[in-house]
Description:
Keywords: Cytoplasm, FAD, Flavoprotein, Metal-binding, Oxidoreductase, Phosphoprotein, Zinc. Its cofactor is FAD; Zn(2+). The structure is a single chain. The protein has 7 helices and 8 strands. The chain is α/β, with parallel strands linked by helices and 272 residues long. Strands 1, 2, 3, 4, 5 and 6 form a 6-stranded parallel β-sheet that branches. It is globular, with a radius of gyration of 19 Å.
Amino acid sequence: MASKKVLIVYAHQSSGSFNSAAKDAAVEVLTAKGCTVEVSDLYAMKFKATATSEDITGKVKNADHFCYGEETKLAWEAGKLTADITEEQRKLTEADLVIFQFPMYWFTVPAIMKGWMDRVLTLGFAFTHEKRYSQGIFKDKKAMLSFTTGSQESMFSANGINGDMNVTLWPLQNGILHYCGFQVLAPQIFWAPSHVPSEARGTMLESWRTRMQGLLGENPLAFTPLDCFDGEKGYQLKPEVHEKHAAKEFGLTVGIHLGKALPPNNQMKAGV
């Protein structure tokens, strides 16, 4: 891990929170292992969450019909994105590993963190039509979600009222992280820390500290490679890939399930 660079994108309002403790533990352990760790504390930075034309300095190409993706691509190419975005892009470019630390809000990331994703992961910088998924721009980087829930683990099960956590994680891990090419490490989920005794929270943090000892050496979650899809036919799974899995019990992934049972823990554990 020595000389590796880690970026922690952190979203919690309170320094007394469990999320803050998890972030601090990551900084402490990874720094002790020789990593260079940067933290983007989004609330402390008052990071702007809305993707607007104000993210571009100077004139835009088409003010009457403003298209954020196209305009920020041009601005990125011309060096005209605002300083808060370019600073985060610098951190991301330098990072070998990105950890998103947050409390789950409404089954996803808090708005300020979604704003970081919307504004920092711009077209051209983070992805292009040609460079995405397994052939994505950040394919040599690792990323992971580390978050707290309000609900207990049983509620996020296949039989639980919230539904399978693997399904909840698919849009974030496949649709954002893997889309940009990241090798996605299994999430670190702290189940309902506000509803357990303090010693249980301490145990949660210790397990996180232990995991971080070998974090950068972990294998990533499995996703179906881009070349398994036919770009000339609407990016449908190629017939030969479909046929190869026809007799298997489970689908390929949570999203590409082929009408079969979902592969267990596909978005929560590597090697399944």
